[in-house]
Amino acid sequence: MTSSSTHFHQPVMDDDTLFPDTDLELSFTSTTTDRTFTSSSARSSLARSSLTLSFNESLLSNNNKNNSTTTNAATTTTLHHRKWDPQWSAIKAATTLSSDGNLHLSHLKLVRHLGTGNLGRVFLCHLRDCNSASFALKVIDKDSLTAKKLSHVEMEAEILSMLDHPYLPTLYARLDVSHYTCLLIDYCPNGDLHSLLRKQPANRLPLQAVRFFAAEVLVALEYLHALGVVYRDLKPENILLREDGHIMLSDFDLCFKADVVPTLQKHRVLRSVPTTRNRCGCFGSVDRKEPEEEEVVAEFVAEPVTAFSKSCVGTHEYLAPELVTGNGHGNGVDWWAFGILIHELLYGETPFRGGSKESTLRNIASSKEVRCTVAQREEEGAAEARDLIEKLLVKDPRERLGCARGATDIKRHPFFDGIKWPLIRNYKPPEVRGLVMRRTKSHVPVGIYRKDSYQ
Ligand SMILES: Nc1ncnc2c1ncn2[C@@H]1O[C@H](COP(=O)(O)OP(=O)(O)OP(=O)(O)O)[C@@H](O)[C@H]1O
């Protein structure tokens, strides 16, 4: 039930409807259902819907070049870093046996309906000859969509086809059959962060878990921005959890693309010099801390700083003030939403939520800056988290952390101190209630995620 932009999803039902192992077309009779079947991956009933309110921006032209009966990325994608994963191997095996070397709907077996979104329905599916490789198939009935929603489908497909990153979905194939467009992507059996949050005491995650998920989201946003993609719909509902507990950002229909010019920028950093024994003091030998040394480092920055759009899209509680006022916005809306996300993960609620959507929007647009409350007994790192949130939730985007130099500046914030960014994929996901993880050998032990243990 997602035809309206203002309602919530219906309560999730414990109904593991299994689609018969028969003709796929039989399952595609309608995209207008108000029932959301559930699995461990179905989103919680309180998930917030995204809104799309266009002020002025011209619709994206339908640039689908693949209107033939079927097309697929499996045979055309050459970039993918996971080309030897079981998923790719299974697809390769299926396409090798295929008469035209392509993947077709007939190769897929629908297992279960996972959920329904604004654009279509999502199914868990397997390849017919390989049950061990699971995929999610997003099925979009183009006949049921408005021109505007069709442009969102094309945007989602276009963005998906660009992605090659562990925290973002892989588009294994795009299949255009009759009036259906089907996108075959990674399946995330651990549901989404919104549902996980609802399983925690007071809807809050422990600080170490917040740091872990925030760091992964930051890296995913950094990659999107480097491609010139402004995401515009960051919220826990759109952060899916893979089998191994790492994140996968989903839903790219509200993105917009802008130019980005990668640069190497010089930046002054202070490096503290370890305490040394100063033997020249007038009063004999004294311990003193040497002053911090200033060093100039060259940093890679690829941030779409000139991105500009006037479409008001996103989810109420996560909308940046410049989106609410409708005077145009750019890359900064993602860094604002990143601040709201950390706030929600840490405190169990978003900071501007009012009694109604209108009052939420009024709170966001007001000139009052966010001040996070200080708990009596705080976890280690809470002060740094508060400081980061307050720097991200600066109402003027020109002053907001991240807007000028993107993730490069945010990664340096003390909240993320000690994280070895190149190793982030190897960090072991946090053990939190409701997150069932498949063990992998490559994980860095949990201790390494403690701030003081990875220096
Ligand atoms: N890759 C996936 N793995 C597992 N479940 C998924 C996956 N993608 C989507 N889902 C499930 O299917 C549901 C519908 O997803 P979909 O992306 O179509 O819509 P949505 O998340 O509601 O976003 P929107 O309507 O804004 O496009 C989600 O709520 C989620 O539970």
Automatic annotation (TrEMBL):
<comment type="similarity">
    <text>Belongs to the protein kinase superfamily. AGC Ser/Thr protein kinase family.</text>
</comment>
<keyword id="KW-0547">Nucleotide-binding</keyword>
<keyword id="KW-0418">Kinase</keyword>
<protein>
    <recommendedName>
        <fullName>non-specific serine/threonine protein kinase</fullName>
        <ecNumber>2.7.11.1</ecNumber>
    </recommendedName>
</protein>
<feature type="domain" description="Protein kinase">
    <location>
        <begin position="108"/>
        <end position="416"/>
    </location>
</feature>
<dbReference type="InterPro" id="IPR000719">
    <property type="entry name" value="Prot_kinase_dom"/>
</dbReference>
<keyword id="KW-0067">ATP-binding</keyword>
<keyword id="KW-0723">Serine/threonine-protein kinase</keyword>
<keyword id="KW-0808">Transferase</keyword>
<dbReference type="Pfam" id="PF00069">
    <property type="entry name" value="Pkinase"/>
</dbReference>
<dbReference type="InterPro" id="IPR011009">
    <property type="entry name" value="Kinase-like_dom_sf"/>
</dbReference>
<dbReference type="InterPro" id="IPR008271">
    <property type="entry name" value="Ser/Thr_kinase_AS"/>
</dbReference>
